[in-house]
Every structure is written in structure tokens, then in C-alpha cells.
Predict the 3D structure of the following.
Amino acid sequence: MAEQKQKLSRSRSRKRRGQDKISSVKLIQCTKCKSKIPSHMVCPVCGTYKNQELVKTSTIKTKVTSKKAEKSRRSEEVRDPDQKASGEAKESSETNGSETKSE
């Protein structure tokens, strides 16, 4: 493996690495609906690309809403078992407490 002849100074190596930055995504306006979209992409709002309708908008909206519905359903499923378990525990402790008080 090759060895360097001299140590690179901190400033010299940082000058070189200063060019290695990530640029932000360039957003353009859709010609039909005027929403902001990345260049060279089909508009998710109206489904057009270069003034041609490539995707029906009802299909796009359905996919987006179905993904949101699925995500919310998953989050509810995660919450429900905890709530049911804690609710059952509270009910059983309340019934046990009332039995001991009446006796």
C-alpha cells in the first residue's frame, strides 16, 4: 500500500473536503396545479409530467389515504392491547377492593 510523503495539514484536508457537501433538492412548480415538486418527477397532486397526465389523480389520492389509514390503524393496534390490559387490571383491582371492604 502506498505511503504519503508528508502529513497533510488540517486546513489542506478540510479545504478538499469542503467540496463534498450535499446539495438540497431543487423544487419546481407544477405547470398545471402550481404545487412544489422535485424536478423530473410526476406531480403527486395532479398526476402530470411535462403537461401530460400520466397517472389518474384518484389513484394517487387512494394510495396516499390508504397508507395513512394503514399507519393509523397500526398505531391504534399497538395502543389497544396496552389499554385493554390496563383496563382489565383496574377493573379486577376495583372488584377485589370492594369485596374486602364489604366483608
Q: What stands out?
A: The helical segments are 10-17, 57-102. The first strand starts at residue 27 and ends at 29.
